[in-house]
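Here comes a specimen:
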Amino acid sequence: MSDRLAEHPTHRKAPVVDAQAMTREMTNRLHLNEGQFLKLLPINRTKLIGLRSINREYKNDEATRNAKTAELEAQYEQECGRILTPSQLSQLQQRNNQPATEPNNSGSGLG
């Protein structure tokens, strides 16, 4: 029990620091403005907390862990799509090795 309590402060602070670093890196790479930075910071924090939770809960079940991670990434990308410009989102997808062809195909119409 004391081990769990000892982990809590570190566990809670790590995603905050990691999310700040992640958002700063995104700011430099994607040229975010201040508003985008402030909106992405809690989204990045939520993503990192979710990833840690998934990795902890499904550490012995790779298939479920991969499915849950993919679901979290899709939600994250959707949230980012509300904040980033199309160009910034495309750059983010390229960085994550996710080609931007899927959203473009589903959203493009000739008429």
The helical segments are 2-30, 34-57, 62-83, 86-95, 101-107. The mean pLDDT is 82. The CA atoms of residues 8 and 14 lie 10 Å apart.
